[in-house]
Design a protein that fits this description.
- The structure holds two protein chains of two kinds.
- Chain A is an alpha/beta fold.
- Chain A has a six-stranded mixed sheet with strand order 6-7-8-3-9-10, sandwiched between helices. In chain A, strands 5-4-1-2-11 form a five-stranded mixed sheet, with helices on one face.
- Chain A is globular.
- In chain A, helix 3 runs parallel beside helix 5 and helix 4 crosses helix 5.
- Chain A is built from seven helices and eleven strands.
- By secondary structure, chain B is mainly alpha-helical.
- Chain B has two domains: 56 residues; 182 residues, no CATH class.
- In chain B, 75% of the residues lie in helices and 0% in strands.
- Chain B is built from ten helices and no strands.
- In chain B, helix 1 runs antiparallel to helix 2.
- Classes of the chains: A alpha/beta, B mainly alpha.
- The interface between A and B is medium-sized, with 24 and 15 residues.
Chain lengths: 239, 267
């Protein structure tokens, strides 16, 4: 569901941790569009995952404000926020039991027909419902994780390098699902190292380096990082 | 309880017994040297320390269990025991944040409830001679489970951090997200005592019973006392492990349902 409000707005956001030589994020200003796929790229340690984890409050900012649909995330119930803002992690992390057990964790009251539909949405046949989680391949497990996240019917999906451990076919299936979700109005914030993937899936791209935004562009014909502004002033990604 | 043929050894006989047992210590040191285990000094330190501690404790205990001594002294002794146990738990599971207070509560609850059952039921008279040893058995035997519970909770939640955060990211509150991992930790902490209770009498003749039989008490009476002690210990292990598990887990999550960064102890 696309609304007028941007999905997220970062206002002078800084994240520091004790003992680290520099902030994980340093006075980041960023607007994430209400819809479409926004890619976040940058080298390891640039602060990409931290940026994502601020969106569902798995981490909190040391300074500055993160807004979701205009509201300060600090003022929102974190449990409700996390059901509106789903997250798929880098490593497929399924819980012990069957795929059905995993999906039921997200919504114990969901009936089988709905779980099957969610599984299909993530590119898995409903027959997978009774498969044991530890019998799945990496690609199947990641799609089951995606399905588990979709059970909560999130408005925004945070994807933290979801295809980095998958083969080409597995990655393409995840990308296709993301494309369908974005077309259906789910805003997606996608962290990746793969620049070809950015060109395939992203509507816009944000580049981070050492905790700072070095570019934010709507134009995917350019390589991310080409349009370095050289400052950390307010950047926009498809506002 | 009847002590039909009490035959406590004379002091001189006890001294000979200690000297003979020291020969076995010498054997342990010799084995360590022969197999290059590097434990010779540790064994000697442990033996010397145990002797010094027990002599001091024995002297103090002599005053506390004196029938003419006020029973309040025994309770002061128990309180000191609980505080010392909490200190030991904190030291042995230093990776667990804020553990001293939680352990103090856990061990205090276990000792308090155990002694309340014993004295409330009239099984023993409430006097220094019964308060101190019973509290000692409860606190001492639940110490290991308390340490294991604390360490395992930290290990489970740091090893399974990805799973826990995946649950939190689905909107589960920390109480629910942590449940499978805390459950596994508590099972590990309690299992040893459960197995020990199962094996009692078959492969293990426990301390209280052995001591009473050696002191000449009727074996049936000794068995009954031992049963009471075993059940008390089992209950106190469950109490300490649960209180530490739940209390520590609460400290490892923030009020807004985030898992704090955890540091594993060097192993």
């Amino acid at each position: 569901m696309v609304t007028e409000q941007p999905a997220f707005r970062f206002e002078e956001v800084t994240v520091t941790v004790a003992g680290a030589p520099r902030p994980l994020l340093d006075r980041v200003d960023l607007t994430v569009a209400a819809g479409g796929v926004t890619a976040v790229v940058g080298p390891s340690g640039a602060g990409k995952s931290t940026l994502l984890r601020l969106c569902n409050r798995l981490d909190v900012a040391t300074a500055g404000t993160v807004r979701f649909r205009g509201d300060d995330v600090d003022d929102l119930d974190p449990l409700r926020l996390r059901r509106r803002v789903g997250m798929v992690f880098q490593r497929p992390t399924l819980f012990p039991g069957t795929v059905r057990d995993n999906l039921s964790v997200a919504d114990p009251g969901e009936d089988v027909a709905d779980l099957g539909a969610v599984l299909a949405e993530a590119g898995l046949d409903r027959a997978f419902l009774d498969r044991r989680a530890d019998d799945l391949s990496g690609g199947e497990a990641q799609r089951a994780c995606l399905a588990r996240t979709l059970v909560t019917q999130p408005e925004v999906l945070l994807m933290d390098e979801p295809t980095s451990s998958l083969d080409t076919d597995g990655a393409q299936l995840i990308e296709a699902t993301a494309g369908r979700l974005a077309a259906a109005g789910v805003a997606i914030l996608w962290v990746t190292h793969d620049r070809a993937q950015v060109r395939r899936v992203a509507d816009r791209c944000v580049t981070l380096h050492e905790g700072r935004i070095v570019s934010a562009s709507d134009d995917q014909s350019k390589e991310p990082g080409d349009d370095v502004h050289g400052s950390n002033g307010a950047e926009e990604a498809g506002r | 309880m009847t002590a039909s043929s009490v035959s406590v050894p004379e002091t001189s006989e006890l001294v000979v017994g200690v000297a003979a047992s020291v020969a076995l210590v010498a054997l342990a040191v010799a084995l360590s040297t022969w197999r290059r285990l590097g434990l010779g000094v540790d064994i000697l330190v442990a033996v010397g320390r145990a002797a010094a501690q027990l002599i001091v404790v024995g002297g103090a205990l002599h005053l506390v269990v004196d029938p003419d001594a006020p029973v309040a002294w025994a309770w002061v002794w128990v309180a000191g025991m609980v505080v010392f146990a909490a200190t030991v738990v904190r030291r042995r599971a230093s990776e667990a944040p804020g553990l001293f207070r939680i352990a103090l509560l856990a061990v205090g609850l276990a000792a308090g409830s155990g002694l309340a059952v014993i004295f409330g039921s009239g099984t023993f008279d409430m006097e220094g001679r019964s308060i101190v040893p019973l509290a000692g058995m409860i606190v001492g035997n639940s110490l290991g489970a308390t340490v294991v519970a604390a360490r395992r909770v930290v290990e489970e939640l740091s090893d399974k951090r990805l799973e826990v955060e995946a649950r939190l990211a689905l909107g589960q509150p920390w109480q629910v997200a942590s449940r499978p991992y805390v459950r596994a930790a508590l099972r590990t902490a309690m299992l040893s005592q459960v197995e020990q209770t199962k094996a009692v009498g078959l492969v293990l003749l426990p301390g209280a019973m052995t001591g009473l039989v050696l002191a000449g008490v009727d074996p049936v009476d000794a068995v009954i006392v031992q049963l009471i002690v075993m059940y008390l210990i089992l209950g106190s292990v469950a109490i300490t492990a649960t209180v530490v598990g739940v209390g520590l887990t609460r400290r490892l999550f923030t009020a807004d349902h985030r898992l704090v960064r955890l540091e594993r102890a060097a192993t």
